[in-house]
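ok so i was messing around last nite and threw this chain in just to see what happens. nothing serious, just curious
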Amino acid sequence: MIISFLPTAHLALMSPEIPRIVNFTIFAAVLYFLLRKPIAQFFRDRAERISRELNKAQAEREEARARLQQIESRLSHLEDEIQELRARAAQEAEAEEARIRAAAERDAEKLRAMARRQIESSANAARIQLKAFVAAQVVELARSVIRRDMRDEDQHRLIEHFAEQIEEVRS
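result:
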């Protein structure tokens, strides 16, 4: 104890609380003297840290408000964007439908033209076959008529006439 250097006679007159109070006061003074700079620095650092954190929180809050405002703005325009997208999709669908119809019309016209050419080609081939058939039938009919109706004198006269024509051509 710090007060123990006093003579014992004086100690008896003192209240038992006084030495405790004195000891506490001295202890508090020593603690104050030793810890005042570190404690002051601690509280200064703590105040600065709290201030920085408050500033950071304020900045984050402002940033969050700005983001919220931006999101709310986008949400308010979202319906307009949706309508615009729907209108654009409808226009694109109409344009695509028109392109498909035009392509189908071109293809149909090509098919019609090809069918016309094929029909004409088939008709020409049929005409040629018919002419060949008719010619063959005419020749056959002429042969049968000639065989039936021609006599020997007609045949001699025909040969002489043919020979005369050949002579004329030679001269």
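not much to say yet. Helices lie at 8-13, 17-149, 152-170.
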